[in-house]
Design a protein that fits this description.
The protein has 294 residues and is mainly β. It has strands spanning 10-11, 19-20, 32-35, 41-42, 59-62, 70-71, 83-85, 92-93, 106-108, 115-116, 130-132, 164-166, 172-175, 178-181, 184-188, 195-197, 204-205, 218-220, 227-228, 240-242, 259-262, 268-269, 285-288. The protein has a six-stranded mixed β-sheet, with no helix packed on it. Strands 2-4-6-8-10 form a five-stranded parallel β-sheet, with no helix packed on it. It is elongated.
């Protein structure tokens, strides 16, 4: 709280400083800051969102040879920065670290980053794209998701998730508008997606993966799929589903699901996986492992 509310535009910090804690410059008029090379942490190492810097902050520079390893929870939340290049020793970016930075157009993450918390870039509407380093975990599976929220982890709340790229060697990939973590399908990231051929080798579709994908008209489920999570196709109201050997794209839009074929490899189907997708007139068809319409 050293400079909370201070009427300053810039400040010179001494070399040797190790930490800049949460709220250090909150509500001040600071617009520019250079972080000494000795600083190892900015903000909190917990899930309490508590910005280090004020909304007025426009420019951040890191001294050559920076030892910064941790960007804390909400450290830059709401700041006016439009570009930031994190130094090459940063390992952890906590949740909401850059949330609501509405002017942020460019962010560079070093290869050293191995963990990025929930909603780190939420509300960064000017950010067109981002590259996630190969070893970075975006924590998409391990969190508890409710209310139809998709498993996006660090990318949650960012409007341009479909433009995310992942460095070679990453366990994540986006293929045809769908985000995967190894052999697990996490979520559709393109809101206008109309058809999906789930990649071979996928064993699980997690909860809410295609929730509210109202333009989705066709999806093919691979043999070997084992789990379909809760609300996986929640209110995907234009959907027809097929497996290898059976293709049933809808020729005309329909109000709700007309046909779905579940591979015999599936051993678990979650609650409400077709909620909102069954026709009221009873003409929807649910078939387990068939290549012909009943």
């Amino acid at each position: 709280f050293a400079f909370v509310g201070a009427e300053i535009e810039s400040i010179s910090l001494p070399e040797g400083l190790l930490y800049i804690d949460a709220a250090a410059f909150y509500s001040s008029t600071l617009t520019s800051i250079s972080i000494p090379a000795s600083v190892e942490r900015l903000g909190n190492e917990n899930n309490a969102v508590n910005p280090v810097f004020p909304e007025s902050l426009e420019n951040v520079a890191f001294a050559e040879g920076s030892n910064l390893k941790i960007v804390g929870c909400g450290a830059f939340k709401g700041c006016a920065i439009n570009e930031i290049i994190l130094p090459d020793k940063v390992e952890t970016i906590y949740s909401s670290a850059f949330s609501l930075c509405e002017n942020l157009k460019s962010i560079s993450l070093p290869d050293s980053v191995n963990d990025i918390g929930y909603g780190a870039f939420s509300g960064c509407d000017s950010l067109e794209s981002i590259n996630i380093p190969a070893n970075a975990d975006i924590n998409a599976i391990d969190m508890e998701y409710t209310g139809g929220e998709k498993h996006l982890g660090a990318l949650a709340g960012w409007s341009n998730v479909k433009n995310t790229t992942f460095s070679d060697g990453s366990k994540y990939e986006i293929t045809d508008g769908v985000l995967y973590e190894d052999n697990i399908l996490l979520a559709a990231v393109d809101e206008n997606i109309s058809s999906v051929d789930v990649k071979a080798g996928t064993i699980e579709i997690v909860s809410n993966a295609f929730a509210n994908c109202t333009s989705l008209a066709s999806i093919s489920l691979p043999d070997g799929l084992e789990v379909i999570g809760d609300n996986a196709f929640n209110y995907a109201t234009n959907l027809g589903v097929s497996i290898p050997g059976l293709t049933l794209p809808n020729s005309e839009p329909v109000d709700a699901l007309s046909f779905i074929n579940i591979p015999s490899s599936v051993t678990e189907i979650g609650d409400n996986f077709l909620k909102g997708g069954i026709k009221d007139d009873g003409t929807s068809i649910l078939v387990m492992q068939s290549t012909e319409l009943p």
